[in-house]
């Protein structure tokens, strides 16, 4: 077997490698320099953006982008040193159709990346805000370039793609300093509404944490089947979930105790069934029915029980003989 051709090829590669060693050494030094420069740029960007924007997530994102961009520039510079024939233009032309294919393949990733940048720039919510998205509700832990993570109230982590949070409705529970809570309380139809309203307001004002401004309210909402429903509304600060549950627990306990101590009924649902038939004029006694409507003017038909039996009614033959 003739290995001369292969040996010549190896010799050529070796000579080219030896010739390129100075360039490789220079490129290694340059990439190390760019590595430290990138770290410095990242620190500077993080410090400047955090001072001006005040957002930890945005500062982290911009510092990472600056770090990666600096390293990419360093790699391109090293590539032009080690490979004299290489230029950024040739890299772009080499990508060509392949770049389009990569774009389609990573469409969702790029979409989430851009949505993450827009979320960090517009800041509809921040880290430690409590948000609700569809069936998920919890505290925002981090806003990354691909997804946002929240910690639910029962101690679970939910990872939500940024594109979904950017294009869909999100409820931010902690967007404002105050939050209004409400609860419907049913009282009996025989109870005094004005008295019950005053007792509910007193009960809410006695609870620590209920704000005086805006003032608590108690308004009639519904004349239900077995109760008159009053809606108690009060404001709390801060609007975090733990504070809300604590305030609601104290307010409802205070209202219940206040109403029962003053003789206000808290009825449970009841249903009344009337067993009679009113499909014919002679069925049922309208004077004794209790549906709530009056008997009206004129004579009221007799009840079936008050009518004579068929045996007692005169027949046509007896009337003729008479």
UniProtKB/TrEMBL annotation:
It is found in: Cell membrane. Residues 108-171 form the Mechanosensitive ion channel MscS domain. Keywords: Cell membrane, Membrane, Transmembrane, Transmembrane helix. The keyword Chaperone does not apply. Gene3D superfamilies: 1.10.287.1260, 2.30.30.60, 3.30.70.100. Residues 275-322 are annotated as: Disordered. One of its GO terms (cellular component) is plasma membrane. Its main location: membrane. Residues 183-265 form the Mechanosensitive ion channel MscS C-terminal domain. It is a multi-pass membrane protein. Belongs to the MscS (TC 1.A.23) family. This is Mechanosensitive ion channel. It comes from Hymenobacter taeanensis. The lineage of its organism: Bacteria, Pseudomonadati, Bacteroidota, Cytophagia, Cytophagales.
């Amino acid at each position: 077997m003739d290995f001369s051709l292969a040996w010549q090829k190896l010799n050529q590669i070796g000579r080219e490698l030896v010739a390129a060693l100075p360039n490789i050494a220079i490129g290694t030094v340059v990439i190390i320099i760019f590595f430290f420069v990138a770290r410095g740029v990242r620190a500077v960007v993080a410090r400047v953006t955090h001072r001006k924007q005040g957002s930890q997530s945005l500062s982290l994102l911009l510092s990472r982008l600056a770090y990666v961009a600096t390293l990419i520039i360093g790699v391109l510079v090293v590539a032009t040193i080690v490979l004299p024939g290489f230029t950024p233009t040739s890299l772009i032309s080499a990508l060509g159709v392949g770049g389009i294919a990569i774009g389609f393949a990573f469409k969702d990733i790029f979409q989430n990346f851009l949505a993450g940048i827009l979320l960090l720039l517009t800041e509809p919510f921040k880290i430690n805000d409590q948000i609700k998205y569809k069936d998920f509700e919890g505290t925002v832990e981090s806003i990354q370039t691909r997804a946002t993570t929240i910690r639910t109230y029962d101690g679970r982590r939910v990872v939500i793609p940024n594109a979904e949070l950017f294009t869909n409705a999100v409820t931010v529970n902690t967007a404002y300093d105050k939050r209004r809570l409400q609860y419907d309380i049913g009282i009996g139809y025989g109870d005094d509404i004005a008295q019950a309203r005053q007792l509910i307001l007193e009960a809410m004002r006695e609870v620590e944490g209920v704000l005086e401004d805006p003032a608590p309210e108690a308004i009639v909402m519904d004349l239900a089947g077995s109760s008159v429903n009053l809606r108690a509304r009060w404001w709390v600060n801060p609007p975090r979930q733990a504070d809300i549950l604590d305030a609601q627990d104290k307010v409802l306990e205070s209202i219940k105790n206040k109403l029962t101590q003053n003789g206000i009924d808290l009825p449970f649902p009841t249903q009344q069934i009337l067993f009679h038939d009113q499909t014919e004029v002679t069925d049922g006694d309208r004077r004794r029915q209790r549906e709530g409507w009056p008997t009206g003017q004129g004579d009221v038909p007799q009840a079936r029980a008050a009518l004579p039996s068929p045996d007692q009614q005169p027949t046509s033959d007896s009337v003729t003989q008479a």
